[in-house]
Specification:
The chain is an alpha/beta fold and about 475 residues long. It has 15 helices and 23 strands. It folds into two domains: about 270 residues, Aldehyde Dehydrogenase, Chain A, domain 1 (3-Layer(aba) Sandwich), CATH 3.40.605; about 180 residues, Aldehyde Dehydrogenase, Chain A, domain 2, CATH 3.40.309. Strand 2 and strand 3 form a beta hairpin. Helix 7 runs parallel beside helix 8. The longest helix is centred in the first third of the chain and has 21 residues. About 55% of the residues are buried. The structure holds NADP nicotinamide-adenine-dinucleotide phosphate and magnesium ion (MG). The site of NADP nicotinamide-adenine-dinucleotide phosphate (NAP) has 31 residues, from helix 7 and helix 8. NADP nicotinamide-adenine-dinucleotide phosphate binds next to helix 7 and helix 8.
Length: about 475
């Protein structure tokens, strides 16, 4: 591999050659080599943390317009180059070019949003209970923030964590998932030209077991924000807690879309297909449980099967493709394993259920639908994270709501209904962090909070103004001015 294709870590304002590199190959075209990316050692991770610790107080004192200019620079370039970068993202993750481009565009919007937020950092003022004493409540940066991201949204998750971290005055060490380093490397390359002082942003590409472990156990890292699986989240949280650090976790889910007897069935099918299969079902907000009221159950399945037959699955770089490949071989094997185990549990396959041999060769699986499933089957309890959904029949609305909430997770929940009363009741009673009415369970905005309940999330919310809770610490100042 030529030197030009070798991608280094970005530490203390410099591109630093790593002790080792790994090859990044496309999951949707196994002959497509994207490049060689640093596989950092634990020493290199330590160096990045030390650089961030040394740079954090200067950035904490930086002027608001300087921060705004840096964030605007990054956001504007991501938006301008979204098609070009989106293509690389699609190649390394397996989602379609349209999805990749949309993700990069959205990532730019996160930076633009937090650029504006830098100028809206207001404190509070109060009179003391002691006459003549005044109180100021202000927010200050936490210090060094460790950011650990998953493979399914390689650019967007990094963006929605890095942008507020910098906006609120923190230094950053970013560790992307090892299977998708290219998107994070491009983000770092843009950041390297943004005017940010050396050491404030560091990229360390490497494995979770090595680099992630160093970040989560380091006493110099004041806060860790993580998106990924529940077991890894639990492990990281214990590491961070041992140092009394701040922790924020966004993890898996088993989101339900409830379809009621009074639903517009065209809309229900459209939302179910979008939520279950787009992004190859590898979204933490994906609808994996389709809970359908008895009166429309059979017709819903019939229409789903008809619409699924029209879906274009294949090369994510080809014009018109709607669903690309799985993101990596482990994920592909896992989904095929769940298809087998669902059959063994008695679920009835009505569409898909097989690997697809396509050209180019990659990790493709046909969108898959099971019926006759119950909520206690493994397939409805564990996160599959692939283009697979299960229909569960409900006797009535109350039954549907009870099934929806009967899960260890709670990220998003959706209902398709024309009844205002049912929609209002569902919004109140769904035990999830986000609720969608007559919309897919996937698809969220960037200016409002995002997160879940139960095993889906831990700590304060991400995104919008709510992000300030995690990326700042509160200080209460008392003074007697005269
Ligand atoms: P994962 O295995 O938990 O990995 C997530 C990140 O943690 C990766 O960067 C990984 O590094 C790193 N990691 C692994 N072991 C670690 C350790 N011992 N210490 C520190 N870091 C470690 O999850 P994934 O398979 O990449 O992603 C799929 C999961 O993410 C799904 O469960 C999905 O629901 C969840 N997800 C949730 C959201 C949300 O917002 N709620 C969004 C997207 C994805 P390496 O992989 O490089 O080793
Ligand atoms: Mg992993």
């Amino acid at each position: 591999m030529s030197k030009a294709q070798q991608h280094d870590n970005f530490i203390n304002g410099e591109w630093q050659p790593a002790s080792d590199y790994s090859t990044n190959t496309s999951p949707s075209n196994l002959d497509d080599v994207i490049g060689s990316y640093a596989h950092a050692s634990t020493d290199e991770a330590e160096a990045a943390i030390n650089a961030a610790a040394a740079a954090s107080s200067e950035w904490a004192r930086s002027g608001l317009e300087q921060r705004k200019a840096v964030l605007d620079f990054i956001g504007n370039e991501l938006i301008e180059r979204s098609a070009e970068i989106g293509l690389v993202l699609a190649r390394e993750e397996g989602k379609t070019v349209a999805e990749g481009t949309g993700e990069v565009y959205r990532s730019g919007q996160f930076f633009q949003y937090y650029a504006a937020e830098t100028l809206r950092q207001m404190g509070e003022f109060a009179d003391s209970v002691r006459p003549g004493v005044e109180i100021e409540v202000r927010r200050e940066p936490v210090g060094v923030v460790g950011i650990i991201t998953p493979w399914n949204f390689p650019m967007a998750v990094a963006a929605w964590k890095v942008a507020p971290a910098l906006a609120y005055g923190n230094a950053v060490v970013l560790k992307p998932a090892e299977s998708v380093p290219a998107s994070a490397w491009i983000l770092a390359e843009i950041i390297s030209r943004s005017g940010l002082p050396a050491g404030v942003f560091n990229l360390v590409m490497g494995s979770g077991r090595e680099v992630g472990e160093v970040i989560s156990t380091s006493p110099k890292v004041n806060a860790v924000t993580f998106t990924g699986s529940v077991p890894v989240g639990r492990h990281i949280a214990a590491n961070v807690m041992a140092n009394m650090g701040k922790i924020q976790l966004e993890m898996g889910s088993k989101n339900a879309l409830v379809v009621l007897n009074d639903a517009d069935l065209d809309l229900a099918v459209q939302c179910a297909i979008n939520g279950a299969f787009f992004g190859t079902g590898q979204k933490c907000t994906a609808s994996s449980r389709l809970i359908v009221e008895a009166g429309v159950h059979d017709e819903f399945i019939e229409r789903m099967v008809a619409e699924m037959a029209k879906l274009k699955v294949g090369d994510p770089l080809a014009e018109g493709t709607q669903i690309g490949s799985l993101a990596n071989e482990a994920q592909y094997q896992q989904v095929l394993g769940y298809i087998d185990s669902a059959k063994a549990e008695g679920a009835k396959l009505v569409a898909g259920g097989e690997a697809l041999e396509l050209n180019p060769k990659g990790y493709y699986i046909a969108p898959t639908l099971f019926r006759d499933t119950t909520n206690d089957m493994n397939i409805n309890c564990e996160e599959v994270f692939g283009p697979l959904a299960c229909v569960i029949k409900a006797d009535d609305y109350d039954h549907a709501l009870a099934i929806c909430n009967d899960t260890e997770y709670g990220l998003t929940a959706g209902v398709i209904t024309q009844s205002l009363a049912r929609a209002a009741h569902f919004k109140r009673e769904a035990k999830s962090g986000c609720v969608m009415v007559n919309l897919p369970t996937a698809g969220t905005d960037y200016h409002v909070p995002f997160g879940g309940r139960k095993n889906s999330s831990y700590g304060s919310r991400e995104q919008g103004r709510y992000a300030a809770e995690f990326y700042t610490v509160v200080k209460t100042c008392y003074s007697k001015p005269y």
